[in-house]
Amino acid sequence: MIRNIAKLTLLSSALAATGVMAEDTTLIIESWRNDDLTLWQEKIIPAFEAQHEGIKVNFTPSAPAEYNAALNSKLDAGSAGDLITCRPFDASLALFEAGHLVDLDDMEAMGNFSDVAKSAWQTDDGSASFCVPMASVIHGFIYNKDAFSEVGVEVPATEEEFFAALEKFKQDGNYIPMAMGTNDQWEAATMGYNNIGPNYWKGEEGRRALIAGEQKLTDDMWVAPYATLAKWGAYLGDGYEAQTYPDSQNLFTLGRAAIYPAGSWEISGFNAQAEFEMGVFKPPVQKAGDTCYISDHTDIGIGLNAASENAEAAKTFLAWVGSPEFASIFGNALPGFFPLSKTPVELDDPLAKDFISWRGECESTIRSTYQILSRGTPNLENDTWGASVAAIKGTSTPEELGAKLQEGLDSWYKP
Amino acid sequence: MHRPRFRWHIAVFLAPAVLVYTAVMIFPLFNTLRLALYSKVDQERVFVGLENFRTLFLDPVWSEPFWNALGNNFWFFIVHMLVQNPIGIALAAILSHPRLRFAALYRSAIFIPTILSFVIVGFAWKLILSPIWGIAPSMLDAVGMKSLFAPWLGKEEYALTTLALISVWQFVGIPMMLIYAALLAIPEEILEAGEVDGITGLSAFWKIKLPLILPSVGIISILTFVGNFNAFDLIYAAQGALAGPDFSTDILGTYMYRTFFGFQLQLGDPHMGSAIASGMFAIILIGVCIYLFGIQTRMRRYQL
Q: Which position among A226, A228, B123, B280 has the lowest Cβ density within 10 Å, counted as fewest Cβ atoms?
């Protein structure tokens, strides 16, 4: 009885809420991008609100490391916001399977995105898409132009030239050839292995073959990047074993290092910190003339909370997120986070422009471990971090690493 | 004939503490143990009995990190027992020396790190030991021993010991304070009686003071044991949840955290996480029981 009364009260208040909705609806966005709070408040939300009267938007981010756990408990408790910023792949897939996210396939705006862009927020068979893709990040190398001209090094395009450049900086001695540490582990895998790797396994071709079980991590194209990483160790500067991610960022922006293996998300931070001119070059290919492959990794999407009481307004917002207008605002306000929509976006930042221009020259792929393959225990992504570090330090041979990773994957994954 | 009346005031005065303790300690503890007996299959929570423990101990994917973490935990504990507690006792003995000047200053200075947050300690030491900005390499350079410097926190073979020593630095004040209090409680007459018999200086410490403070040493050991096997914060602050390099600093706390809450692409598994937490609880329980029944009851006590 009491329960029924409670239900009735809830229902009537929900009805009351819909009644009020015609006046003013407030949408709440859950996100881990607390760095972008001002951008949302000053640029994105006003642009949306100006065109859509009666809908107010509230961006409420939490700390990145806490986001997944906090979001899960909020969703379970029914107190999460209307719009959910989606992590790529399994974290969001789990939310969809638990019924927390709505299938958005029938939305017109979804047609603005390519299949690769949508793949990060789809069921394995591609039958349902549950988040609107927002942005991707591209990997490559950012370099110090002043250092290059001072030491007289050409921007490398092939692997041979790349190591020749590193060697020249090492001989010169004024600059640490490359700023990366292995303390935090993920850089070695993300900015190392998955940065240079697509050139070996031919991007999507290799990634899909690996998922289909046609290729193994013991195959040459998956082992060879480790052999290349093993050669990096000599150029990373003293004590790189204990060098953290912020250490590497600071070394580079202070002008003490020549090359920084990067993700495009560094752009805005580096623009603010570095006082020298920067350039970018893409992951070097093995032989001049080879097709180049880049990691253009789908990173952020946004979906609709199934429990939202403002589903209509929220869908209006999502449709707007899928529009070219949003892409242009977002891409320019956050250089380094590249909109995923099919319509090309005009970017102003020179570094970001260079990064995105590679989409035309090279084949895009996403990080090899993210889709499906990191679903079980042992976790392939975590293992790849360890393996990339071991390769750089030289504590294991590339063949041993490949064998160990494949063994771990075989223990739970049947293609 | 009076029947003894039920003394309500006892229950009333105990109630707040019992309720609060039950709500924040006992209930979560038993709920965690219960959670370890379930698993999630197709969005449903299913009772699986001891299956999670079978996986944890028999499946090499789970058991290898578990034994690795347990081994690291023991090494962490051994370093504390061999370094922290002897130094703590020695500091207390020196501090209790009646002719030491500025004793209060030393006492506070040594005790202060104990009240610092793990995050501050972890971060400060990471900076001190940093091969790039740290003062450790330049200090060693100043005395011409730069060659001794290594990026300790980044090397598999040193990282755990380095972290254990950082933890020792932070917590050495606790055994020092407890022993110091125990030493102050020793009556002057006993020491004077010893002096009459010709026992002075160091031999007074070994023959009179140490036996009298042994019960405190026992308490400190068990506190160290419980603290070390529950440790998590320092490793997490300094090395992150992946407890690098190559899991060489992974202890049960970080292993439990990764499993329970997930990490990067690894989704959290509260059930396996609870199984690990139950394992930690069992290990600590056994350790404490061995101490309580095996050592403490046999320890000789002196009436002072």
A: B123
